Each structure stands twice: as structure tokens, then as C-alpha cells.
User: Fold these one by one.
Assistant:
Number 1:
Amino acid sequence: MTTAWTNRLENPVSARLRDPAFTGYLGLFLGAFAAFLAIPPIEARTLTWPVVVGIAATLLGIWTATRGRRRLGYGAVATGVLGIGLGILATRSGTENLHAVFDPTLIAQTFGFATPLVFGAIAGMFSERSGVVNIGLEGMMLMGAFWGVYGADKGGNWIVGILLGAAVGALLALVYAYFAIHLRSDQIVGGTAVNFLALGVTGYFFVQLYHNNYVPNGVSTIPNIRIPGLSGTHFFGPAIGNLNLMIWAGFVLVIVSYVVLFKTPIGLRIRACGEHPRAADTVGINVYAVRYACVVLSGVLAALGGVYLSTGNIGGGTFIANMTNGRGFIALAAMIFCNWRPAGAFGAAVLFGFSSALALRLQVYSASAATLFNVLPYVLTLIAVAGVIGRTVAPAADGKPYAKQ
Amino acid sequence: MTEPRHDANVSPEQAAQTGTLAARISLTHRAGGVAVPVVTVLVAFLMGGVVVLATGHNPLLAYRDVFNGAGLNWIFHPTTNIADTAAYHLSQTLLATTTLILTGLAVAFAFRCGMFNIGGQGQYFVGFYVANWVGFALEGMTPVLHILLAIGAAVLAGAIWAGIAGVLKATVGAHEVISTIMLNWIAIWIGEWLVADGGPLQDPSQPFNPTSKAVSPGAQLPVFWGSQSLQGLHIGIFIALAALVAFWAILNRTTLGYEVRAVGFNPDAAAYGGIDVRKNIIRAMAISGAFAGLAGALDMLGYIYQFSQNDIPVSAVGFLGIAVALLGRNTAIGTLLGALLFGGLLFGTTHGLTSNVISPELAGNLTYIIQGLVVLFIGADVLILYLWNSRRRGRRRRPPAPSAEAAA
Amino acid sequence: MPVLRRFRSSIAAVSDDLVLEMRGIRKEFPGVVANEDVSLDVRRGEVHALLGENGAGKSTLMNILYGLYRPDAGEIRLNGKPVTFSSARDAMRAGIGMVHQHFMLIPVMTVAENVVLGSEPVRNGVFLDQRAAMRRVADMARTFRFAVDPDARVESISVGQQQRVEIMKALYRNVDVLILDEPTAVLTPQEASDLFEILGTLRREGISIIFISHKLKEVLEIADRITVLRRGKKIETVPRQGATEASLARAMVGREVLLRVEKPPAEPGEVLLSVEGLHVRDDRGLEKVRGASLEVRAGEIVGIAGVDGNGQTELIEALTGLRKAEGGRIEVGGRELRHASVRHTLDAGLGHIPEDRQRRGLVLEFSIAENVALHDYREAPDSRWGWLFPSRLIERARRLIEEFDVRGGGPLTPAGALSGGNQQKLVAAREISRDPKVLIAAQPTRGLDVGAIEYLHRRLVTERDEGRAILLVSLELDEILSLSDRILVIYEGEIVGEHGGEVSEEAIGLEMLGGGQRQVA
């Protein structure tokens, strides 16, 4: 049975040109490129190139869709059209504004916004891959944010903050796991409860422990990593030369989680528990143990995302009530949007982080329009869930409590 | 003899499940009646009290102050004079209760139809915005008409907002929890945009603090207890009470209610009865959203009148509605009682609180903790199922007494 | 009619060495004794068939062996040593494998992944050695001549191939005893042939096979010895030589005194239900009804006898509008109904007592009154302009409760609080009270006590005498024989026999199992 890969090996060039996956991704890339042409650093001021490239992207997308990869194909068409649209907008805007919005620090900011989402999305992914829905990510992230700062403050070091945040996230997740797995309570209700609890506990202790409601300055924050040699350069310097440790940790996390989930026996077992727990049980896998472990892991990861939020370079070592403000749900959206896969979740998180960063910067144009930009992650997820661009496929046993007979 | 169901052509998966969401919840209705919610609340308060104690405050005194803050001490010396603190506090509590009744009904209605409407907050906001817009845009209309129009538009908006999730579920089977969560946040950000600097609903006369325009006096709901300018209790509470009756009537006295309940309990049997399952899913969500939209309208036209960007993230009435509905076991009476409890908690721990023992900020967060605990425990119906089953085994000999569930 | 290839006996003789012994097994569920003092022994390298009707206790016995149930009494010995299993895991470790009717496979994973799950080969201590897994699966496939691609996703391969993956799971774990539960129920005839060849190969490797079936022909094809169960008891164990279809059928069905319902002779009138050449597929796309034709007249009860899984369920679903039929004609009272919805079918005069009263027939959380109104709630007098009048529903329910002697509560009692028998009476009450021309009763007395059964039987006869056409589908041969005026036998989706009221059990039993006058190629 020849697979796409074997095909590619046998006659590389022509097979590659005909492979819908290839054309689809190429189309996506070209669509983004079309928009990219109009913004700094290339900053084409006429419409020709963006339109040409955008049309090419659209055509590739149509080709891909007719060859069976509908979701990819329509995505390429969409980015092609969008690319043309954005190109038009960009060529009509003033150059100072463009420079204000699109400079290399945008990339750094994107990653900064994306990292809590990355942690959250991977957290959710582990939990749901084992079959337990976790909409309490927001709450676990919030707990991490508060207790991370508290730990960094009272413990004197950001490492303490990370440890404390992770521990608290694990604890909250353990409580949730007990209700969801052992008591087989409804998981959505449980997740909602977790969010309320986290809001209440962090708020309560924030007032209790920090009477004036602000965390004093000078709390140890998670350091950035300067890449020597890069930081001086014009583009890469501001872009990635000085990123926070946690951002790099996020990249590593994505790779590690991919490997664990798809290349190790434990990953296979986790996925089995999420797809068909009874089948897993009959071959000797302890479904309960696997699910507990995954939920606790998701608590730790989500909390770490929250720790970054408060103790990293976005928060700068401070906490505001309800600091996460929905990021946990965006992380959930990222996870759903890309079908519970690590690479896709990362991509979605970066995309959503990008839209958050843009939303902030677009205020240069118009404050109100910039606000509306924040809607993008949710709208995209809604479209994904609606199956307009292909169905989202959750693990088959996701959300169903397992009862050993 | 026929082989027991265990070995019939039922896969073990099916045997292990306990039925649709509505069926499970209805099972817990019968199991324990009113005892379970009461116990749940007591335990939640107890645990909240432990937290308070552990952080160096006296829980009993703290709860007493919350009680007073909610104006519940009014029962000790009732008066209609709003200058009396207890009376004033009570009026404010009832204000919060009005909203929570409706957001609770929204969640409860959806539950009765087998669905989890976690989007009450978004549907509330949508109604909120629309009421504001109609409220100031049609200035000069006769008050009664203006109010009706504003409320009607808001209810419709809420219904549509929830209806989107309903359509998605009925057509592509998208889980309503995900859709409604997304719609919540979309509604929140739309609100932020509407009153942002340069947004469509923004009042241009206040450029430094982006706010919407105020609802014109003609559209404001009349106040009957307290003064209009000091956030008195408006007639919206009667509308909310009427909504409770409507909730009960729709579910128990109309063919529509019959259909949505059947679909919620047992879609297979409903289909066999000739009921259109898809249509009813959409209907159920739409009605559910209508209740929440009404809540938004009543708040906007009743006392809020205008909103700014800061008002949006802090509102939690939609989410509290979930706790109210779950605590009230998705019945009309239960929702009323749950709304009273959480309304009291909400107001009594924040604005109404004057206490040496516990500050309002602390107490406000205590509400969230209690709320979280209540929801957490109520979700664990397995405990209740277990209790119910052990009770049932004991009564196997005697015929079960007919219950009045149909009238709930 | 499936074409069964002549299965050649293996060259290796079946040894006398007993690999498995089950002695005196007893298992009771609430209200029924599923296994009563059952003993079974299996020799090494033999194919041992477990034969019996629905409800005979075959699946229960095997679930006990596989560790899914614990026996109330009795013992199991493997290779001479007594064993107890508390879970399927224990049984697997002891060398017992089972291929269930509902496969335990993960659709989105590949064949290789499914086979090695739980005992995965590892590389460098941490990584899943996918290549080793694929290689081992490919080796196994080659040895046993399975044509399965290790890299294929389970959801994309055929049912027959999926079954082979299940078998490979057991082989990968070195089983001594392999249990197959009605394996050919989901297979096409060709796939069944292939399966038998595979079983032959397994035998030669020294693996013992327990083959649960109700199909006489197959059992005689491949089994070395056959154990017959009936109503929870073991009747006999016979070697294949000397067993005939007739002798097996007799053992399965038994010679018990039948309780016949006193009924006056039928006076059939015009044809009210007519079915011609009906073709229906099940959810999996398998054709379950293959050109069935039948007629039911007013004033007669026609019973369809057959073993579960031969298309009865799909036939009824097609008749009532719950499932689309692919070809053929259905007429009720002269009206063509093949494409009709449930609502239209009901309006045309068809009533249906469904076989699963809790899933299809009743909303258990609704009161009796609300359930009674399930078909009619939309019309007066139950409602008008969308407003329900509960008092009317209650009134009607009260009348029906009295007329049909439904006990256990009043009109406001939730249906779930009634006993099974009363629930069924409620369903019957609702259907009959709508005055249908044709009444379909599917497993009407399943799970009921004797009193309820008697009542329902008498009621059906009464309705017959009122001039209704009654189609009775049941897995209980007794019921069919005692109630029906005419008996049809369904086998593999076709009506293979038609008899008048006076016919012997053995004859029917034989036809139900695919025997009798059918040709064997």
C-alpha cells in the first residue's frame, strides 16, 4: 500500500507538485506572503505584487480543495484573499503608521502573547487526549499567575515562583480530576466550578496577602535569554534575540509533547484512553491512572503558562485580579482549532498571539477597530467547529466518564 | 427466559452510560429532592468559612455582616422607608436577584432540554447592548412603546445569539458548550468595541472615558421602591417573576415544552413520536438565550442606563446563572431561591458590606469561592445516584409512591 | 444463501490433553439464572463449538471465562491448574483471548498500533519502536495468511479485516485458547470462508478455539466437538462425527410442553400489510434484509421466527419508517409507505410496540399521561394552538390504565417507576388505543414476568379478533408457535419458510438455523 511519502520518494518533483498537502501549504504561505509584501521590511507600495501573489495563493487553494484536502485548500484560498485585502490596506496606509505597527519587535511580542496560550493549549491537549475535557484551564492558569508571583516575591527567586505555581496548578487539577474521574461528575460543570474557584481563591488571597492590591516592585522575574551575536542585528535582534526563557521553554514543550504523544508507548496509551477506554482497559492499561496523570499534567502546564504571564516579561512581576482574562479559553480554542495536535496548537497559539499583539498595535489607526481584532481567535474557532473548513475531530471518548465493569 | 440485558446486543459502552444529560439531572432531581441543594450550600458555606478562619477572620461574624449587607436583616424590622439601611440593602439585593432569576432560567431551560448553555453571559451582554442602543436611539417615543421595543429587541438579540449555537449543534453537531463559550467572548469584545473610542455606541461628549450614551428617560423602567436616581428597585422584578411563570408554563403546558423536554430526555423516543429533533434543539437554545437577553435588557433599562469598557469584564451574572440553575435543580421555584441566595451573596459581599471583620474585596471573592464549591459539588451527581440507588433497593417491595414531578 | 466451502480437517490430530476445564459454573443475574451448573472442557488444538439459541447462556459463560464476570459457583482450570480471573487482563495473561462481537479496536489508530497496544516494543528505552511493531505484525500476517496492511488505519479496513486484527491481538499475546463470539454475524460469506481457513491454521499451531454460534451449518463445518446449551443448562457435548443438523436442532430447541394460548381459529380478511422484495441496510452498510416479502391479513397473527441478527430489527425499522429501505414495496391498507416518515406511517394506521421499550417506546422521565400522548399530543383534545391540556391527558391515561390493567402508579407516575411488564402494557395500551390497522409487536414480552406475558398474549388475540392485522416478531419460539396463525421464518434477511399453525418445533428450529430444505453448494 503506497503512501504519500513513498510516492514522493519515487518521483520527487512531479509528485510533489501534485501532492495536495504540498500545494495547500504553499498556498497558505503565499497568501501570507502577499500581505507580507506590503509591510515593512519589504514595504511594496504598489498593489501589483501582493495581488499577483495573492491570486496565486487562491488558485493553489482551489486546486488543493478539489484534490481532497478541503480544509487546507479553503484555508489557502482564505489567506490568499486576505493577503490581497491586507495588501490593499497596507499600501493605502501611511508609512509611519506601518512602521509603528510592523517592526521586528512585533515578532517578539507575538511570541510573548502566544506563550501562555501555547502552555495552555498543550495542557488542554494532554488532558483531552486522555479523554477528560478540561475547560478549567483558565482557572488553573490564573492560579499559576498569582501563586507564581507570590512565590517569586516571598521566595526571593523566580524559580520558587515557578515551583509554587506548578504545585498549585497540580493541586487544583487533582481536585478536578477526582471529581471528573472518580466521581464521574459532569466535566463541563466541574471545569466551570474550577474557574470560579480559581477566581475566588486568587482574588481572596491577593487581597489578603497584598493589602494594597499591588505587588511591590522588584519581584524577581523570569529572565530573558540574550542570544549573543544576534542581538546586535537589525532584524533578528529585536525579533528573537532577547526572548524570555519561558518562550523558549514553550518551543521545547511543543516538540517534546509531539514526541511523547506520537512516538512513545505512553503517548499511544494516552491516546487509546481518549479514543476507546474500554479497549485500552482490556489490554491492561490502567485508564484511571493515565487520566489522572494527564489531568494533573495539564494543571501544571496551564499554571506554568500563568506564571509566565505574571512573572515573565509581559506582566513584569505583578498580578492584577483576573489577570488571565480569557486566555485560558483562547488556549482551549487553539487546541480545538487544530484538532488536538501539538504542532497545530502551537501554530494556532502563535496566530492568536499575533492577533492579540496586532490588536494592541493597531490602536495607532483606530482604537475601536483594534479592539474588535481581539475577536479573531473566537471567530476562527467557531468557524472551525462549524465544520466549514472540515470537521474538528476530538478524541472519541473525550468527556465521557469511564466506568470499569 | 430471555438473556439479561447485560448480554444483549448492547455494547458495553452503552451499558455503562447513564443516559442523556437531562435524564441524569432529572434522576438527581428525584433523588433527594430539596435536601441535596440545602446540604450542598451548607457544605460550601462551611468550607468558605474554613478559608475565612484560616486567614485570620471570624467566619461567623463575617457571615453575619454579609447577611446584613444583603439586607436580609430587614426581616427583623421591616419597613418600606428606603432611608433605612437594611431596606436599602434589601432593595439592592432584589435588584441583583432580578437579573439572576433570568440568567438562571436561561441555563435551567437549556438543561431541561438536554443542553448546557454556558453562554448566558454573552447572551446577557447582547441583550444589554441592544437595549442600550434602542434605549437612546429612539428618543422621544412614548415610554410604554419605547420600553416594549427595547425589551423586545434585546430578547430577540439574546435568542439569536444562543440560536447560533443551537443551529451549529442541530446541523453539524457542534457541542454547544464550545460554541457558547466562543460566543461569550465574542460578545464581550464586541461590547468593548462598541464603546471604545470611536465605537458606534460611544458617547462623543466623553472622549476621555469611553462610555456609551445613556438610555433616554422615556425608556427607563419605572422604579417603585427607592428613588430613580439612586438605583431603586424597578418593575423589572415583576417581569422576572413573570418570566418564572412563563418558564414553568412553557415547559409544562405547551406542546413546545413537551417536545423540547422529550428531546432532552430521550431523543430516540421523541423521534419515534414524530418530533423533529433538530428543530427543537434550535428552539430550546433560542428560548434559553431569550431569557438571558431579557436579563440584559432589564439591567440596562432598569438601573445601569449606560456602560463603559470597564463594566464589561467585571460582570459575572451569566456565570452565576449557572450556579443558580444547578442549585435550583432547574426548576422555577429552585431558580428563584437560588437567585435570592446568590443575589444576596453578590450584593451583600460587595457594595453592601460594612464590616470590621472582613473587607468587601475579600468577601466578594468569597462569593466566588462559595459559588465554585456549590457548582463543583452539584456536578458530582454520582454520589447522589448512589444514595438514590441504595434507597431504591430498600423500597423494592412497596410500590413507589406517585410523585408530582410533572407539576414541577 | 452463503456458500460454505468444505473445510478440510487438519492433519494434526486433536490431542486428548485438556487445556481448559470449566466445572459446575453457575451465574445468576437479577431475575434469571444465566448459567446453571455448566461444564465444558476443551482439548488442545481443537475447535469446540458452543451452540444455543438466544438466551441460552453462551455469551455469559464465555464472559466468565474471559474474566469479565465472576461466577457464583464452579471452577475453571487451565492446563490442570485452577485459576480465578478478576479482570480481562488476568485472563489474557493466562493465555485466553477473546474476539467480541463488538470489536475493541481504536478506529483512528493503525493496525499495528492496535495490536501492540499495552505491550509495545521499545527503542532506546523511551521511544515506541514503530518499525518493530509493524514488522512483527507483518510477520504474523504472513504466517497466518491474513491480508492486512499493518500501516492501515482500522477505520478504513473492512469488517473482516478488523476481525483479523482482533485475532492478531490475541496471537501477539500468545494465547492458548481463543474465544470467538458469533464471528460470522458481521461477515460476508466470502469473509466467513476466509475466517475458517484462518481457524484451521491456528489449530495447526496448537491453539484451541471456542466458537460461539447459532448457525448449524457452520458449526458442522468446522467444529471438532459441539456443546449445546439451552436455557442456561448444558444439554450435551457431541463430536462432529455423527451429529446432524436435525440432532443438533433437537438438542437446542428441546422437547418441552408448549403453553398454547386458547384462541379461536383465525378468520383472515383482506390484506392490510403487504411487503415485497424489501432491501434494508444496517448502520454499517451491510445488507440485512435481502428481498423479504410477506403479507398480513386483517384478523390474523403472523409470526416471524428467527435467531437474533437475521434482519428482523431492520425489517421492522423499515416498516415503521425509522430506517430507509433501499428497494421493494411496503403497503399498509393500500397506501404505499416505503418513503414515509414515522409520522405518516403512524397516521396511515400502523401501530408498533417496539422491541426496546425503554429506548424507543417510552420517555422514562415523563409521566404515564405524557407518554400516552407521545403520538397525539399535537392534536385536540390533548392540545389546541400549542397549549396543552394536562387534564385531558390524565383522563385518557386513566382510562387506559384501567383498561389495560397497568399497575404501579397513576397517570402522574413517571414511567420509569413502573415494572417492565407494566411499562410494556403501557406501550401496548398507547399503540392499541390509536386503533391501528396493522400492529407490529417486536419482542413484546421480553424481560416480562409470566403474568404480564399472559396478559399481552391474550390481548394480542383479542385485537386480532377485532380485525387488526398483527405482525409478531419474537426470538422466543414458544411465543411464536403459540400465538401465530401463520409462521414465517427469517434467515439471513430472507423469508425462508412459511407454515400454518400446526408445525413442529424441530422443523421451524431447523429453518431458523439455516437448515432444512436449503441447498448447500
Note: Chain C touches chain A at residues 68, 88-89, 92-93, 104-109, 113-114, 117-120, 122, 126-128, 130, 149, 151-152, 169 (CB under 8 Å).
Number 2:
Amino acid sequence: MIVVNGESAELEPGETLASVLAGLGLTAQARGVAVAVDGEVVPRARWETFALAEDAHVEVLTAMQGG
Amino acid sequence: MGVVPEPTGIAATGQRNGAPPDAAPSAGEDALTIAGRTLRSRLLLGTGGFPSLELMAAAIAASGSELVTVALRRVGVDGSRSPQGSLIDVLADAGVELLPNTAGCRTARDAVLTAKLAREAFATDWIKLEVIGDEDTLLPDAPELLRAAEELVDEGFVVLPYTTDDPVLARRLVDVGCQAVMPLGSPIGSGMGVRNPYNISLIREAVDVPVVLDAGVGTASDATIAMELGCDAVMAASAISRAQDPVRMARAMRAAVEAGREARLAGRIPKRRYATASTPEAGTPDFD
């Protein structure tokens, strides 16, 4: 199981960060999006190849009105 | 008939009432520079609290602001998209620069990570650093704020910290490399204006980076007072976005900031206990 934005999800074997993001409707071209896995930023260029661990904690963030 | 002691009338570093506090710029060239970036508008706008993105865009245009704040939140939460398109697209169309914030962070660790994510998301090194230490007042947590500021400066960020109106903390923040300080006038969203004008004027004297009054502005006169105290800019969010007519309030804030800036540069008269006639005595007729 991994956790994506607070929701538990099954991790398919060999699943990358890019495929998890695709599940949220996000491609590598998505504007104003950033991702942290286990408290570390994963740069956009690494989304395609970033392999998720079995208990990965993924936060997918975007712009929100504020401040 | 002495001059009444008036802390808020004390001018910038080393100067007292009567002397023009700042070098007078040539007309129309009174730009603000933060970390090498030149801004013609001295009003920064927060994007939070607008009922719609359409109204937000109209208020940005009316305000003349060139730098607006955005927050980072989870994808898919209400408000990250809207019928008007994504926030990021609307802001790009408005032609403004983004100032991401770390709103909601309670620790230096969270704020540093949020800043790094903002840099990734918005391709800017600028960060409005907020580390909150109290739920009721949303006042900054000074030790965490300073720690986060130091770390982010080391990581190459241009750090604009939201801070208490404490001149010593402001100086510490500049000592670790912050490129501006953003002291509060009063708690976020309270609309109570500048509660401690004396401290704001002390901060202006204490640091040699831009001072941006952040938080507490409730209406136009609050922004003017901040500028008259020597602030280099004012940030307004709720005061505009939650006004009954946000576009009209944006226009009012723009005029208020300009008026306060002009008054500051003009050099106000000292406050006196008794009247000083503005019409000369000489030539007064005698009707007896």
C-alpha cells in the first residue's frame, strides 16, 4: 500500500510515480504541480523513472488561492 | 508650544521630523526593488478569499499589483480548479509574477519542504515564508521562522519572511540573508490595521532591505498609514478579496498606497500641541 494525498492505494508491481500521477489526470506537462515522496521533492524530470517503495507516502500539490 | 512626542512621526534612519526621510526620486520613477527585481507597484496582492477567479483577475487588474501570492495544496481539493480554468492559468493571463507562500506550515521542516515544492511547481526562487505558531492569532513562530529562513537562504531562495512586528527579529532575519521583511500590522485577516506604529517605524530603521507591511490591513487608510510609517510596500489579501466590492477596494488600496508613499517622501509636518497660524499676522485690519 502507498498513500497518495492522504488516501491509501494499491501499488502495482513496477509502478512509477508517473503512472500514479496519470491516475490523478496529471502528465509531465502539468503546470504548477510539484510532488514529494517521503518528504523529499521529486523533480519533474524524474517522475517517469521514479520507482515507488511499498510504503511510499506521496504528496501531489498544486497552486491554490492563498496568502 | 513644543513639538508633541510622536513616535509615528519619526523619520527613517538617523533623521527626525522635518527632514525629508528618503531621497526624492524623479517623478514616475519611484520603483521598488526587491532582490534585484523592480516593481512599479508597491501593493502586493494575496489571492486568497476571492469568491471567484474572475473577480480575482479583475481585482488584480484594478490594484495594479505585479506580485501576487499563491499557496500550495493537494491536487483535487476544491479550489485547485474552477470553471474559469486553473488558478495558474488565470494568473499567467493577468501578467503578474507569483510569490508562493508556505501558508499552513507549523515547523521549519515543513516550511522548507513546501518552499522547495513551490520552486519546483512555479519555477521561482522567491518564497513568502510563513511559519505559524498559534492557532487563534496565526502569529509567526519566531525560532522556527528564523531557522527556516536561514536554511532557505542557504538553498538559494529569495526569502521574504512574514514576521512579528519585532525590530530585533527583523534584523536577525536580514542577518541570515532575507531580502525583505514582512512584519504584520495585526493578525492575518483581522482588519485591525497597524496596531503598533512605533514598532513598524523601528523596523524601518533597523533593516536596510524593503519592509512590506503584511497582514492586518482592513481598509485603505491602514495601507496609507503603513506607507507613511516608511514601509516600502503593503501586502493586502482579505481586505480586498473579502470586501463587499473587491474590485473597488483594490482600486482604493492602490490609491492609498500611492498616497502614503507620496506623503512619506514629502515629509510631514511635526505634530504640535497648539495651533500654528497658516495665515500671516501682518496686514490684519483693525475694525475698532
Note: Residues 245 and 251 of chain B are 10 Å apart (CA to CA).
